[in-house]
Structures are given as structure tokens and as C-alpha cells.
Amino acid sequence: MKKEFSAYIHFSQLLEKRVSQDALRKLSVKKGLIDFCSNDYLGFARSAELREMIKNEYDRIADHNNGSGGSRLLAGNSEYAEMLEQKIATFHGAESGLIFNSGYDANVGLFSAIAQKGDTIIYDELIHASMHDGIKLSGASAFMFKHNDLEHLKQRLAIAEGLVYVAVESIYSMDGDTAPLKPMVELCEQFNAHLIVDEAHATGITANCGKGVVQLLGLEDRIFARVHTFGKALGVHGAIVLGASQLRDFLINFSRSFIYTTALPLHSLVAINCSYELLKKSQSTIDKLRELIKYYNELIAEYAGIVRIQSESAIQCVIVPGNSNVRRLANAFLSENFDLRPILSPTVPKGKERLRICLHAFNSKEQVDTLIKILVTTVEKE
């Protein structure tokens, strides 16, 4: 007979509160839908070509285990891992890189390690939860600045103490808009601050063969650290922190999410390597995605009644205040075989609930036409 722990009562009360707010999260499996939901912007996650590349590369390596056998500092390191880190660093114009098991691990491990008590981290109010969690673990003083607000950032920089770090995303995961990185770099240089850029949703989609916004602007030598993840446009899993060799050495010694976890198995490293090889020859796919983004923006701009966040990225958001309202809109799409997900509060602020639309290179203009038709028709009924 199952024991009833007192914590279960507490959990049930908190879950019921989520139900009353129409904010309860549940796992679901949806198959056969038209994908406007996933982060698979280039279609790599479903790519038969990438799957074949991974198989051939993995088979080429004769001697390999099923797992890594331990952390990188114990049994889990390999020549392949170190080769791959340098290869990716070179691709992104960085001196060095360190692979982490996920983007979450990378941000938690980076921020918790580099900043100490007496230091200051200044962060954009819309940064990812993983960055927030790393900041909380750091022991440094932390101050928010208004989203993409350069004047507010300057005010924060003027009062910061110790080593100062500024945390932003190049393309924001929930809004899809882009940070003004060049003036941010100039501000950070003025105040001797260290800019950290999470390129998770820029990797693979920018016009420079997907190298990211930092390189698109030619700022790679002026950024303290960059995080590129492999689970979005690259279609696989893991992440890398890029920077100077001193940063890599420091993280190997002080980043707990790197030190105290089993390393990625060889198969995962092979998948990352092959994904970068495919990216190098995928400029036409990136161009197709960017053309679809332009098409979507031109089409939806004709409808003044649609409240949206301006974005030139693959992430497009329509604001639909209220969890119940945005859930109904998502269900309207589901009934038409379209997979779009509602983003609810508290993930986003109350009143800023939204339908998050992800565009992909494999989506057609006809699908975009239908999507906008359903959107306009449903919103007009509300």
C-alpha cells in the first residue's frame, strides 16, 4: 500500500492552485501535426541526411563504448571531444570552447562559477530561466535592466561593483526579438564590464551560415563569453561555452555542472559534429527560412487587430492575454491539425500570455497562409 507522505498534500494544494489559474502543465504526445511549435528551425532533427551522416561517422570509429563512463575529469574525456570543441570554437571565431550536456547546464555552470560575492551581474529582464538559476547560485549581487533598454543598462553599470557581468540573449526565446548587441558592447567596454551572450535561438538561423548574431556583427573578439546550444536549429543535443582559453580552464576547475556530471557519450558528440558539417552546407536552407520569415511578417502586417511582437527571427509571437484565452486559440489550431503551443503565465508575465509561432525551413508558404487565416478568423470571434 502506498504511503501517503505529508508533502503530497502540499503538492496537491499547489497543483490545484495551478488548475484554478488555468496554468497547469501536462506532458502530451502529438503526432502527424503541421509543426509550427518546435525549435527545429532548419529541419535537422528530422533530417534523413543528418541521420545517415551520424551513422556513417559513428561506424567509422571502430572502438567505442555505449556510454562515456564518467565525468570529463574522470573516465569521460576523449580526443574526439577535445577535437570537437576546438572545431566548433574555430567555426564561431572563438579561441576556445567547453561542451556541456545541455544549454541549461551551460548557463548554470557558467554563471554560478564566474561571479563571486562582491561581484555584480546585470541581466536583461527576459533572459532564460537557466541564466537566472546560474545567477542565483553565484553569490554575486544581481540587478535586472528593462528589456533591451540601453539607458537602464547604463544606469545599472554606473553603480555596479566588483567584477561586472552583463547577461543577454542575442535572440530572445519567448519574444523572438534581437538584442542591440553593438551598443551593448560599447557600454560594457566603457564600464569595464564583461558581456555574455546566449545565442541559443540564433545558432543556425543567421544569414552568415548560422554562426550567430555576434559574428554577424563582427563582435566575437569583444564578447567575454557566448553560449551556443545544439538542441534548436542544429537538431541534436548539448551546448558549448565559447571564450578565451583562460575561461575554458577556469570552468573545467570551477563549473559544478561540468565537473559533477557524466560526460556526453560518443554518439552524442558524433551527432553534434555531423550537425555542424551539415550546417556548413546549408546556407540555401537558411535562406529559405529567412524568406519564409519575411513572407510571414509581410502577410500578418496587413491585420491591425493582431497584437504581435516585432521579430525578424524564426520565433513569432501573438499576444493573447489570459491563460484560458490563449489555450482556446491553440486548441483552434489543433483542431485544424496545426501544432502551436500557448505560452502561459507564470512562464511569461500575466497579461503577456501568447501564442508562440515557430517558423521552419520545411514549412510552406501555403501553410503560413492557412495559419494566418485561422489566426485572424479565431481572434475576430473572440
Molecular structure report:
- This protein is an alpha/beta fold and 382 residues long.
- It is 43% helix and 14% strand.
- It is built from 14 helices and 13 strands.
- The strands form 3 sheets. Strands 2-8-7-6-5-3-4 form a 7-stranded mixed beta sheet, with helices on both faces.
- The longest helix is centred in the C-terminal third of the chain and has 18 residues.
- The protein is globular and about 60 Å long.
- The model has no long low-confidence stretch (mean pLDDT 95).
SSE layout and pairings?
Elements: H1 6-20, E1 34-35, H2 48-60, H3 79-91, E2 96-100, H4 103-114, E3 120-124, H5 129-138, E4 141-145, H6 150-159, E5 164-169, H7 181-190, E6 194-198, H8 213-216, E7 225-229, E8 239-243, H9 245-254, H10 256-259, H11 266-280, H12 283-300, E9 308-309, E10 315-319, H13 323-334, E11 338-339, E12 341-343, E13 354-358, H14 365-381
Parallel strand pairs: 1-11, 3-4, 3-5, 5-6, 6-7
Antiparallel strand pairs: 2-8, 7-8, 9-10, 10-13, 12-13
Question: What can be said about this structure in brief?
Answer:
This protein has 382 residues and is α/β, with parallel strands linked by helices. The chain contains 14 helices and 13 strands. The strands form three sheets. It has a seven-stranded mixed sheet with strand order 2-8-7-6-5-3-4, sandwiched between helices.
What descriptors fit this protein?
382 residues, alpha/beta, 7-stranded mixed sheet, 4-stranded antiparallel sheet, 43% helix, 14% strand, globular
